[in-house]
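Case study 2.
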Amino acid sequence: MIRKINGRHNRTVKLARKLQKKKHRKERGLFVAEGMDLLDAAEDASRHPVDILVREDLADRLPSTLSGSAAEDAVDIGLCTEELLRHASGMGGAVDVVSIMENPEWSLGDIEFSGIVVYMYCVGDPGNVGTLVRAAAAFGAEGVICSPKTADAFSPKAIRAGMGAQFSVKIAEEVTPEDLEAKLRADQQRGEPSPRVVLADPRAEQTVGDVASNDGAVLVLGSERGAYPEMTLPYERAAVPQRGLDSLNVAIAGSIMLYELTGARLGKGSQGLLGWNPAFGRRSHPR
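Prediction:
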């Protein structure tokens, strides 16, 4: 259905505002994606919204597939004034469309560990979480796992930072280190491929280039304040070499490490980046 919305008491407008909070996202299994570019990304990934609020003068810019869905009542398209859309949005006046999407709610068992998997431990900034999901999508990671106290990967800020990567990457949330280790041990007992565990640590003596191989790996990224999970499984610590001050945040460091680990699996290691480089010396981490 396509209809004009005239007031703030509309059901979809009220729902969009509620979904700015994690509590309501978890209760309803829904999240919001704000912006036409994110709606396009969802459609490209065959992820269709359940409700849309769009500025009435921009309705003709919606993906053409949505018109047929609206005619069949598969999606409700609400035409809003700029002021009403600003009220519904967490971005204020910058937004042109607010899409309400279903959260796929992947579990740990849905993720394949034969490739590269990212585990975020207590990464509190949603912008960093979204950026890492985006990097995981770019470098073909099998999935992203988030611990308790990691920012919601489906919050509006994380969705914006991910630029729609959440529509194409499997994301399992609220997974403790103990749950992750139990899963890896159970897979080992069943004879399934056992990935290496690589812990990102800026103080490590070896670099990610030293530990990169064509094996599967779980890349563990700790919090921005240096918190790391206690692991009982064997693991390797690795760093991104830097010339001076340790100044990379978790999103940048994690993206570089994903690039290196993926390159090794594809047989295209980045010798110019983390291998032999006159700026760093031979794969050495500055002390």
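Residues 250-265 form the longest helix (16 residues).
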